[in-house]
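Hey,
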Amino acid sequence: MASLSDSSRQSLLPSFLYTSPNSFALDRLLNANNPAFGVSRSTTLESPAASSSPSIKSRTFMIPAPNEPGKRIEMYSPQFYAACTFGGILSCGLTHMTVTPLDLVKCNMQIDPGKYKSISSGFGVLLKEQGFRGFFRGWVPTLIGYSAQGACKFGFYEFFKKYYSDLAGPEYFAKYKTLIYLAGSASAEVIADVALCPFEAVKVRVQTQPGFARGMSDGFPKFIKSEGAAGLYKGIVPLWGRQIPYTMMKFASFETIVEMIYKYGIPTPKDQCSKSLQLGVSFAGGYVAGVFCAIVSHPADNLVSFLNNAKGATVGDAVKKLGLWGLFTRGLPLRIVMIGTLTGAQWGIYDAFKVFVGLPTTGGVAPAAGTQPAKA
């Protein structure tokens, strides 16, 4: 019979992540000196294409299921994708909700720069007019929308990265891996934005039009009554224009930056580094990637805010009112701070969850094709 502590640990994880629901001591998995964790320390699986090569028989990465050493979560199995999807929910939903005050000021600076002239004055105006509670207006659609987006973004990225690398094969994956990262992240984001768009539309309207609604519960039906159901997707094209370049930069630059850190900045091979160090690398790589993301996607972000705030507005109206320079620069410093922190935290949370369930962190130097992983 499982102990009470075993049962409490199991309750932290969704049961669908494992092939068996029996409980086990997670600390045994997370103990780097424990033989049960030896496989993850000795196996680096950053080349999905290499894992499917018939010449590499021991490439498949597995972790033990609770109290049953023979039961495993296999890399690129349904349980693996379920874990990545759940990690994406945690990483995107929680981080976007946390930075709601910054997002609120940023959106209002984009819509009404005459009133919200700077970051500090923007916070001052909000505090004076709406009080402290006003800083978190729109947090519910933010949490729901970005949780849905994160689930699709990370889950489908892992799927498409594996799918495209299998099509390319180990040799072409090693040669064109950046293109595969770009294609995989773009494909995932197309799906993720369909999930996000309705909630983003309501969020922007709630945040930029005081008195429109208190939040999600009354804002959603009000928006549909005003714009119609189709109005929830009025901003889908600008959203794709913002999020697809953002996500392509986010994933491809992260993978490249992390690989460079392990190759040039850390003398110890990744699979010999502590998990805390690996998570630190994930956060640092994510933060730098986030700065690039903010710059690339900012013009489209201004368009999304403008279109969702003004009824019947078009892209032409936005360009005419904001101007080309304003389209690229209005609210950019704040967005760099926000997106850099956000992206670093997202990669940190996502990889922390992967480590928590026994999976390897994302990114790093891929093993040469045809090499056998060291045995535990």
